[in-house]
Amino acid sequence: MALLPALLLLLLPLAALAAAAVLLGLPSYDIPPGVNQPAKLRLVLTLLLGTAALGRILEKTGLCSQLTFGRYVRQGRKLGLDPKLFIQDLQFNEVPVRVYQPKATSDGPRRGILFFHGGGWVFGSLDTYEKVCRYLSRESDSVVVSVQYRLAPEHKYPAAYEDCLSASQHFLQHLQHYGVDPARVAVCGDSAGGNLAAAVSQTLAGRSDLPRLRAQILIYPGLQALDFNLPSYQQNRGVPLLFRERAAFFALLYLNGDALHLQEVLEGSHIPPDMRLKYKKWVSPDNIPEEFKVRGVKPLRPTDFIAEVYETVKGFCEPNLCPLLAEDSVVHQLPESFILTCEYDVLRDDGLLYKKRLEDNGVPVTWYHLEDGFHGIISLYDYCGFSFPSGKRGLDRVVNFLKSL
């Protein structure tokens, strides 16, 4: 890993060529004019796809794997000391965590936030989300615990879920040590981290031996893998930073450690007809408000069920992996919720469907929709000198919700 900085310098010309090639191919991707900062988004996409292209070159030369290189580049630069926060790296039940505590004196115990980062269960780290966690801790005057769960494909489901649950249990058992109010603890995550936050929240809802969670904060979460043809998947299939095919690809990597049967999963051949009918009450375009269909939705012909594929992906029907499928008896016990969705995001409808499920079960929901938002915009609110005002606006809405707890 120590060789990577030198490799970056040596291979800059190749990186420039790769980025140029990617830029020439960008018209095949869809960057809608209504998206926040479209020119900047195009540059970020070029950088990420150029990184992927360079990673493939490095892998073919045997210098390092594409996955290792991609994770390294996404780490970003190390931040200096924060004058307003105490920051320490610890382990909760052998799970690495980073704890952020405001330095200012407090009149009483603070609220606590368990944060699970995004990255498709494959990318992301404590360093990747350092800016976001510092911002949440400073602006909401909260103790934030960022959890470094094990990543796929090396560690398949349920490794990430188990790590997040284990770290959460440890924190809830030791709140006094961190000056946290047991009545004001929330779980929070974006994308895959939103999936993990929802799953952990469901598991803890029935626990009487731990403090009850005060809230769950789900930022453009991925909550199901039954239907990759919902309206948002059709409308935003080519919109950065999460393409339709990559959403299914990441889900398969998390479940099985590989992306076999990707096409069958995209087409919907992986779910038995009786199971699809069972879950239709929760996973259906019919439950999506009409205003989210105005950009176009095509009726799709039913696909033939392939039993062999189902046998390899039946874990997609487990609520710990796909929280949208939890029974009503679990959902109605969940804490107050905040859900953020983005218009130009394939996962938009996952959030909308879960919002409906929560409300139908009497759970209070604060919903905020970024009409010009795209997937990943929160973590890019201040990215490499680029500013995405919509991402900052969404992050501030999260802070305001936290302050209300």
Report a brief summary of the structure:
The protein has 405 residues and is of the alpha/beta class. It has helices at 4-10, 12-25, 38-61, 66-74, 130-140, 159-173, 192-205, 231-235, 244-256, 262-267, 273-279, 307-313, 328-331, 348-360, 389-403; strands spanning 85-92, 95-102, 110-116, 143-147, 180-190, 215-219, 336-344, 365-374, 382-383, 386-387. The model is unreliable at 20-27 (pLDDT under 50).
Give keywords.
alpha/beta; two-stranded antiparallel ribbon; 405 residues; 40% helix; eight-stranded mixed beta sheet; 17% strand; 10 strands
Give a structural overview.
The chain has 405 residues and is α/β, with parallel strands linked by helices. 40% of the residues lie in helices and 17% in strands. It has helices spanning 4-10, 12-25, 38-61, 66-74, 130-140, 159-173, 192-205, 231-235, 244-256, 262-267, 273-279, 307-313, 328-331, 348-360, 389-403; strands at 85-92, 95-102, 110-116, 143-147, 180-190, 215-219, 336-344, 365-374, 382-383, 386-387. The strands form two sheets. Strands 1-2-4-3-5-6-7-8 form an eight-stranded mixed β-sheet, sandwiched between helices. Strands 9-10 form a two-stranded antiparallel sheet. A hairpin with a 2-residue loop joins strand 9 (382-383) and strand 10. Helix 2 crosses helix 3 (38-61), helix 3 packs antiparallel against helix 4 (66-74) and helix 6 (159-173) crosses helix 7 (192-205). It is globular and about 60 Å long. Residues 20-27 have low confidence and may be disordered.
